[in-house]
């Protein structure tokens, strides 16, 4: 801990840790970032369209994750009065604030895959 | 899915999903980003120093996460020939590439806490 005071005061450091912990608690897990990413970049989708776009996710997991994202005001769920009834999911305007983070996650993933592949060849 | 072709080709889209999935598989969970963040910003630490700096993490969880991060070349573990023997953990130069991502995670966490707090007041 000796180097903490070189860069951060203790209260600044606590704030950083809290902020990282907030984000990771909300968005961690394999799927949530991908769910929001797909809704942001591919647009509004029905449940089964969204499920197909994500690949290997189970229906129960997707349903639970969507519910948590709804509570956190990142996704809206709209029941449409069609026959049969359809349910659509959409990223909220607030979810747009996650775009820079999603881009960083995607960029780092591409770079990391390249690095690991090069190391295996070497 | 109808809007996919407006922005991405199918193969571009698959690449994006793969990249996000790679990063989230490696870094998701509540602690890994915080472990790397603390080693990057606070410097080299012994196991117990690192544990204290993180707060509520258990020793077994920390040990497992450090091992995974070591395998992925983000952390090095050095056994020092002192009496008693000490074990130090350090972020690798490669881990520096995570700084923009960690900053985005921290910034979003701060903004989100502010938003949620304001909504509760309103």
UniProtKB/TrEMBL annotation, chains A, B:
It comes from the Bacteria. GO terms for molecular function: DNA binding. Residues 13-117 form the HTH hxlR-type domain. The keyword Ion transport does not apply. Keywords: DNA-binding, Transcription, Transcription regulation. PANTHER family: TRANSCRIPTIONAL REGULATOR (PTHR33204:SF29), TRANSCRIPTIONAL REGULATOR, MARR FAMILY (PTHR33204). This is Transcriptional regulator. It comes from Sediminicola luteus. The lineage of its organism: Bacteria, Pseudomonadati, Bacteroidota, Flavobacteriia, Flavobacteriales.
């Amino acid at each position: 801990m000796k180097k903490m005071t070189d860069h951060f005061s203790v209260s600044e450091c606590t704030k950083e840790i809290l902020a990282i912990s907030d984000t990771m608690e909300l968005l961690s897990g394999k799927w949530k970032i991908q769910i929001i990413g797909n809704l942001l970049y591919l647009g509004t989708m029905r449940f089964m369209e969204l499920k197909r776009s994500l690949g290997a996710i189970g229906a129960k997991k997707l349903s639970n994750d969507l519910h948590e994202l709804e509570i956190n005001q990142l996704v809206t769920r709209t029941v449409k009065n069609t026959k049969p009834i359809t349910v659509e999911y959409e990223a909220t305007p607030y979810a747009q604030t996650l775009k820079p983070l999603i881009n960083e996650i995607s960029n780092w993933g591409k770079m990391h895959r390249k690095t690991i592949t090069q190391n295996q060849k070497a």
